[in-house]
Amino acid sequence: MDIAVVGAGMTGLTAGIRLSQNGHRVTIYEKEPFIGGLASSVRAGSANVDRFYHHIFVSDTDILALINELGLKDSIDWYEPKNAIYLDYFLHPFTSPVDLLLFKPLDLISRIRMGLLVLSSKFIRDYTPFETVTAKDWIIKRSGKKAYEKIWEPLLKSKFDIDSDNVSGTWIWNKFKLRGSSRGKNIGREKLGYMDNGFIVLLDKMADYIKQQGGSVKLSSEVISINKTENGKIELKTTAGISYYDRVLFTGAPRLLADICHELPSSYSKTLEDIKYKANICLILELEESLSPYYWITVSQKGFPFVLVIEHTNLVGTNGYGSHIVYLSRYCDMTDPIYSMSDHEIISKFITGLKIIFPNFNDNNIIKASLSKAPLAQPVVTLNYSSRIPGLKTPLEGVFLASMSQIYPEDRGLNYAVRLGEKAANEIIDDL
Ligand SMILES: Cc1cc2nc3c(=O)[nH]c(=O)nc-3n(C[C@H](O)[C@H](O)[C@H](O)COP(=O)(O)OP(=O)(O)OC[C@H]3O[C@@H](n4cnc5c(N)ncnc54)[C@H](O)[C@@H]3O)c2cc1C
How far is the CA of 110 from the centre of ligand 1 (A)? Predict the structure, then answer.
């Protein structure tokens, strides 16, 4: 059978592999001139670095199995990160439970309550009670108002902006649980995985595999409409021409499917459009000198233009990059004025903020600055989210949807993109 997959991100390429292995001819359409979607890469020195920062956890078994299957086991390395929180205009180490106990901005009782909340989340299996309580209310109830205001409120605001008060308890419970699992038996030591030369190494291998199986990956090929024909085939109009398929899998955000597939019932399209996403703005700085010893700095101080300072080379080393790689990241609503500012304006705002955290930072330290924007970077997980998630099979026969917004109760991530791609491929195979 001929199957089209729209999107060459982790979900689309995974589905492409599984469908090819099942004997189908797969054509992947990608509107960008590169593969990888949010996991695509840019060049830094003589190496690749992810356009948006990535790491995986030891509990990410689906992506680890795929990495093994494609013979890339030796490309994944595990590192122990050093983390910090920037609060009250000071960098506080925040890597281990001991750091939490010594964390000055909170009184001892709040620290202990906060530690217990994070630890106990690892053992909670049933998330359904969290579906009807906001993250805000749950945290205040379990770890107190002070901990919420100092630590969690800035974190939620940094990710969900104007929607942060409506984020479901499920989202934050899952974050606590994940961080607990990434420590395995040794709760003092977290381990994070990164691929030598970036996750693009895996994505390239996946695309090559699909081609070896007789499939194709068409770049700079945007799908502009999806329609059903009278003979039961699905017509795909793309910037590269018109083609016909037996099944189509769309892997972009739900609202993008509603935009191009007008035969979907209007009530269903509305449910797709109602799933909100946050945008991300991410600056990569290639620096002469390192900023700090930390990999991950959460900026909990109000009024900063970015919310994360991630010194990637403090995790993986500078090999191949010839510089220190730092990401500055900000999530925002698409309507936030910062999203429409010019790259120059955003870079200048970010650098001004960076100089407050690191007063000795000097413009001469910057070798290169590259800005990326993703309009649909993070689904907003609100109360009773499970009842709003569309199924993989759409009401238009033969058309399937597998997007980050259908990952639940976990949050989006490379591991879950692999899992979702496999699930979508299985549904299509069952449908044939
Ligand atoms: C800032 C940031 C940091 C992250 N950090 C991590 C991390 O540390 N660890 C982790 O595991 N995950 C992380 N993630 C999440 C991870 O990147 C995503 O979960 C994953 O890449 C999603 O893959 P996907 O294929 O589902 O979607 P996408 O990567 O969005 O792929 C969808 C593809 O569809 C294409 N497309 C859409 N519409 C069309 C059309 N009409 N025609 C043709 N093509 C189309 C898009 O161009 C895109 O390439 C991060 C994400 C962001 C934004």
Answer: 36
